User: Fold this.
Amino acid sequence: MDKVLERITLNPAVCNGKPTLRNMRFTVSQLLELLAAGMTEAEILADYPYLEKEDIQACLLYASHIADARTIVPVQDKAA
Assistant:
């Protein structure tokens, strides 16, 4: 399953080095925000035809690894 993480790329020349999918200008956080907003996998794949099911799996696995960190940094509200 960790082979799917190879879809997550870090490139300083793409999206300022944020984690992206397959070196495209589509960030992991963008995809996670779509899921958090309630979009289904099918809706995401229909709206973004260049994404693949494995991209969604990779984002979720990547997020699970980050959430498993031993050090937690409080998230600041963007609206504040």
Observations:
- Residues 2-67 form a domain with the Arc Repressor Mutant, subunit A fold (CATH 1.10.10.10).
